[in-house]
Design a protein that fits this description.
It is built from 3 helices and no strands. It is mainly α and 124 residues long. The protein has one domain. Helix 1 packs antiparallel against helix 2.
Length: 124
């Protein structure tokens, strides 16, 4: 019975180490979640800025092309109507290709962000 004090002390140390390990894991998960949230929010912010600027550029270019077509056809309303038809066709093309141009790249980005990191962690 002389060694029972040593065993209880070892068990206490193991319990303390497990608690410390679990605490570190909790902190690691919080930092990992913050990193992933930062990446997602950065991507959303960049996308929003690009969409806003792209919309302004597209609007100005559309007006310029509509005026140019109107001058060519000697009818400003016909130029704007032609440009509206072109924009509708582009919108339809964009809608048809939405999976390849938007959904799949977003899914790949999310998969890389959440799945690939977990596989790298398991290898370590």
């Amino acid at each position: 019975m002389i060694g029972t004090g040593k065993y209880t002390e070892d068990i206490r140390e193991i319990i303390l180490e497990v608690k410390h390990y679990l605490n570190l894991q909790k902190k690691y998960l919080a930092i990992d979640a913050a990193e992933k949230a930062t990446v997602i929010l950065s991507a959303v912010a960049i996308a929003a800025i690009c969409i806003l600027l792209g919309t302004i550029i597209l609007l100005l270019c559309t007006f310029a092309i509509a005026y140019w077509i109107g001058d060519l056809l000697n009818s400003l309303p016909l130029g704007f109507l032609t440009m509206a038809c072109i924009v509708v066709l582009l919108l339809l093309l964009f809608y048809i290709k939405r999976k390849a141009w938007i959904i799949q790249p977003l899914a790949r980005m999310m998969a890389q962000l959440f799945v690939d990191n977990n596989e790298e962690e398991e290898e370590e």
